[in-house]
Design brief:
Length: 167
């Protein structure tokens, strides 16, 4: 089950800053209850007011340095995504690129245990959280689903429905 990270953060009492590379998506972010929606043109430093103490970096190495530069001393950045299509950060120098007093960590969830999955579902039930579904496609439409995802056509999670009768 995929869930919108904004909903998770809001359920924990966080103020949420969300970014998008598409101006047309700003109003959608506001409708989803974010506290501050921001157009990301490649440089966020100076556009976000102080008070940002945590960031979940979902785009990945292509935006990591910029995200790090927006976090207050004592804050934490968790690198967990590679949505930007870049999987490593050439010439990354932790001494120079991680601001003093900012912590950088990562999260990788390839093989969660049953206990971890049970805890996740208990949390979702406790806070009445559900995925933001965008579009459901039949398995035979998987190429169309990928195309729509690549151009940002779907607002929400894309679901591929598999007909079990076809094996």
């Amino acid at each position: 089950m995929l869930l919108d990270m904004r909903l998770l953060a809001k359920s924990l009492g966080c103020n949420v800053v969300a970014t998008t590379h598409r101006e047309s998506k700003l109003s959608l972010l506001r409708q989803k209850g974010v506290d501050f929606a921001l157009l990301d043109n490649g440089r966020l430093k100076g556009k976000i007011s102080s008070g940002v103490t945590k960031a979940l970096e979902l785009v990945g190495p292509s935006t990591l340095k910029d995200t790090l530069s927006c976090i207050e001393k004592g804050g934490i950045v968790c690198q967990t995504g590679v949505l930007g299509g870049i999987y490593s950060l050439p010439n990354f120098d932790p001494i120079k690129d991680i601001p003093n007093g900012v912590l950088l960590t990562g999260f990788y969830s390839n093989m969660p245990t049953q206990n971890v999955m049970d805890d996740i579902f208990k949390f979702l039930e406790k806070y009445h959280l559900f995925p933001a579904l965008g579009q459901v496609y039949q398995f035979s439409q998987i190429a169309k689903a990928c195309e729509d995802m690549d151009v940002g056509k779907v607002n929400g999670k894309i679901v591929i429905k598999i007909d079990e009768s076809n094996g």
